[in-house]
Design a protein that fits this description.
elongated; mainly alpha; two-stranded parallel ribbon
Length: 260
């Protein structure tokens, strides 16, 4: 019999709720994170505007070569976009949008990508069509802006966003503390889950805190062990929805089929 893995358990910061008590609101101020994200995104647009003004001769910077000025503004633009997007995603994990309006849900969770497009595509077009830039400067600056757009866009995507309904279902269903790893994308209800065998340090708190930390999905092994219904993405299914699914389907040797 394999020896049980011993973990170093780290209790994360919380709102002060007692251990083993599920809380409906995780630590952190979603509004504060959103305001911070918007401010940083505005600064990103400011950097782009400064670059455009510089290209049109409306802004004079004589102590640096043109290429350096453009690269510095592009790098600052990228930094503001990425940090702003991380804050926005953090806010979405604390206070997610509802899936009742799919279009709004998509826009809310991809706002960082949209901002990244606004922050780089106009300057790319202007540099490409600018006849005053020498070929070397134009080539390097355009490539830098395109790379920044790709990096900023990729960093802004929430690849598995959680909805308000999915967050509520997890908080309602899962009692006690859960566990997650430093770089993992899921949370676990059992410290001795087989997927944690190679991990020395685990972080623990309520499921609301785990979601706020970006671990939006429940480990499917832990879900099966606890008989918790999850969808194909690993999100906990609300108890009412799970009961309805059980009532309208039956398991056969070939899988699950809907009852007439």
């Amino acid at each position: 019999m394999a020896e049980k893995k011993t973990h170093n358990i780290v209790q994360t910061e919380s709102t002060g709720a007692k251990p083993q008590v599920v809380q409906s609101k995780p630590a952190g101020n979603a509004t504060g994170y959103r305001v911070g994200a918007i401010v940083l995104w505005l600064l990103a647009i400011v950097c782009e505007v400064l670059a455009i003004l510089y290209l049109f001769g409306k802004l004079e910077i004589t102590f640096l070569p043109t290429l350096w000025v453009l690269i510095i503004l592009i790098v600052l633009d990228l930094a503001f976009v990425i940090i702003g997007s991380q804050l926005w995603k953090k806010a979405n994990h604390i206070k997610p949008a509802s899936k009742k309006n799919p279009t709004l849900f998509w826009l809310w969770n991809n706002l960082g990508v949209i901002v990244a497009c606004f922050a780089f595509i106009p300057i790319i077009i202007i540099m490409l069509t600018n006849k005053d830039l020498d070929k070397k400067t134009k080539t390097i600056a355009v490539i830098a802006a395109i790379v920044a757009l790709l990096i900023g866009g990729a960093a802004s995507v929430d690849y598995n966003p959680i909805s308000q309904e999915e967050q509520a279902a997890a908080v309602e269903t899962i009692e006690g503390n859960v566990y997650w790893t430093q770089f993992g994308k899921v949370y676990h209800t059992h410290e001795d889950c087989s997927h944690l065998n190679n991990t020395d340090t685990l972080y623990t708190n309520t499921v609301a805190e785990a979601i706020a930390a970006g671990r939006t999905r429940l480990c499917k092994t832990c879900a099966a062990r606890d008989s918790v219904e999850v969808d194909e993405n690993g999100f906990v299914v609300a108890k009412d929805d799970a009961a309805e699914l059980t009532d309208t389907t039956e398991t056969t040797d070939d899988g699950v089929k809907t009852l007439d």
